[in-house]
Write a structure and sequence with these properties.
It contains 10 helices and 8 strands. With 283 residues, the protein is an alpha+beta fold. The two termini are 29 Å apart.
Length: 283
């Protein structure tokens, strides 16, 4: 059963009392996501160059911030997770980067060296769906160490079915008072439409350990009729689904001071100089 099994991509509730996130650290209204697949054997060099870029930007007035997500599962890839408030702000960022590269050609050269290590690159713009998701206001991205990403490509004409299914799932989470939130975005440009992205920020991988104990409660909270309905939706509405886990790499990220203040020990420039990252090695 797709939706019952898909709970594996949503970690179980935390025992900690959730707190409302600040606007600076909450999921943005608009996301620019740059997916990059890395040439085999070039992962370390890519991270080294990206860290140089991040540190160079620390001393400049760059037009936007980004969080680097490195794959733990699936193909060797990274996602640059760039938050924006609007398309107008995104437009200003494109202009700003053009001016920045013109004034600092060394940055452009560094970017070209990074691109030479890639096998593919895809840029996606996605818009937050405030009518979907679960307790989005409690998501504090500055506390995130890992990110689960569920990608659902929906067949044309079945967008409403996806919305129905995730509202059922959100209601079930409310009934068992689960405290792990998730947020839903709909791809605006860059991928076949309609495509939805479900993001589950995690403070630690151990949050998944409680999942088995919660599955029964969630199924009971959904009710048999709702479970059957979600099974029907999964069969008729979904073209494809994929779930993967990513680790946050602070050394390669570039965030604002206000964002870093949410967890300065993790995000500060000093922490970027650490030799070890929180990214587990692939087997």
């Amino acid at each position: 059963m797709f939706f019952f099994l898909s709970l594996a991509c949503i970690p179980a509730a935390s025992a900690q009392t959730p707190k409302l996130a600040t606007p600076v650290t909450a999921p943005p209204k608009l996301l620019l996501l740059v997916h990059r697949e890395i040439k085999f054997g070039s992962e370390t060099e890519r991270q080294k160059l990206e860290t140089q870029m991040s540190r160079a930007c620390d001393g400049l007035n760059v037009p936007n911030s980004w969080i680097d997500l490195e794959s733990v599962t699936g193909e060797s890839k990274t996602i640059s997770f760039d938050p924006f408030d609007s398309f107008a702000q995104l437009d200003q960022a494109f202009v700003g980067w053009g001016q920045l590269y013109a004034a600092h050609p060394d940055l452009g050269q560094l970017q070209e060296r990074i691109k030479s290590l890639l096998t593919s690159e895809r840029t996606i713009i996605a818009v937050r769906r405030d009518d979907l998701g679960y307790r989005r206001d409690f998501i504090d991205l500055s506390k995130m160490r890992f990110m689960r990403v569920l990608q659902v490509r929906v067949r044309s004409g079945f967008e409403n079915s996806f919305e129905e299914a995730f509202k059922i799932l959100g209601a079930a989470y409310e009934r068992i008072n689960a405290t792990t939130p998730w947020v839903v975005y709909q791809v605006n440009v860059g991928m076949p439409s309609p495509t939805f992205l479900v993001f589950v920020p995690m403070r630690a991988l151990q949050q998944n350990d409680d999942l088995l104990a919660w599955r029964k409660d969630l199924r009971q909270a959904e009710g048999e009729a709702a479970v059957r309905r979600m099974e029907e939706i999964a069969k008729e509405a979904y073209e494809s689904t994929e779930s993967n886990l990513y680790a946050v790499i602070p050394e390669v990220s570039h965030v604002t001071k206000e964002f870093a203040d949410g967890d300065p020990q993790f995000w500060s420039p000093d922490s970027r100089a650490r030799k070890e990252t929180n990214s587990p090695k692939k087997p």
